Amino acid sequence: MNGLGMHILLELKDCNPELLNDLDFIRGAMLQTASQVGATIVGESFHRFSPQGVTGILAIAESHISIHTWPEYGYAAADIFSCGSSFESRTAAESLVERLEAKDPEIIEVPRGVIPLAVTPR
Amino acid sequence: MNGLGMHILLELKDCNPELLNDLDFIRGAMLQTASQVGATIVGESFHRFSPQGVTGILAIAESHISIHTWPEYGYAAADIFSCGSSFESRTAAESLVERLEAKDPEIIEVPRGVIPLAVTPR
């Protein structure tokens, strides 16, 4: 079943906790992942929280990539939303798994915008 | 089953297509929704695409709210990621449903970061 977009939810368990608390590292990992799959970045927002944890969001022409980290649990929640077939979102997911050294990752694919064939674009 | 976060995927079908192509309206709807549930905005990124469609992302202290619209299908994909119990993400979802005049919405709740009890925070 095809949709207008593919939304990958990425459960990154058992990561390297030090990386998860390093805003510069997280930003670099996200930008490198976007670059690796040819995504076009149109906006970004990165924040480090107290006492720990990082949020990073890339707005891309193809939708978005986000991450929220819990260093105290070695856990990060990422999602990759891609519309069209302009980039390989699963490759982006695998890139984040590798860069964050997640030893127990889970990749959940959710097709978004599965529109009935009866609806034609205006 | 509780997780570190709750991720709501919001399928907004049969929306008012004119609203979906109006960047100012979409930004207003997102900001009002965030305000309504007491979320703390730490960053934002909004873009209108050619020939149509809007992407909007709010980075919030409690994680993120995003939307991607396909006016030609009357469809928008939103997601609301909240960590902790600091705001009622389902209320935020219902706010977006109402503001975008979605007549056929679907709200999917995905618990994120369900960590085994054996893992204690560092």
Written description of the protein model:
- Chain A has helices at residues 17-20, 23-36, 89-99; strands spanning 5-13, 41-48, 54-60, 63-70, 75-83, 104-112.
- With 122 residues, the first copy, chain A, is an alpha+beta fold.
- Chain A has a domain at 15-51 and 71-104: S-adenosylmethionine decarboxylase (4-Layer Sandwich).
- Chain A has a 6-stranded antiparallel beta sheet, covered by helices on one side.
- In chain A, strand 2 and strand 3 form a beta hairpin.
- Chain A starts with a strand and ends in a 10-residue tail after the last strand.
- Chain A binds chain B through residues 4-5, 7, 9, 11, 13, 17, 42-47, 49, 55, 57, 59, 61, 63-64, 66, 68, 70-75, 77, 79, 81, 83, 108, 110, 112-113, 115, 119, 121-122, and chain B through 4-5, 7, 9, 11, 13, 17, 42-47, 49, 55, 57, 59, 61, 63-64, 66, 68, 70-75, 77, 79, 81, 83, 108, 110, 112-113, 115, 119, 121-122.
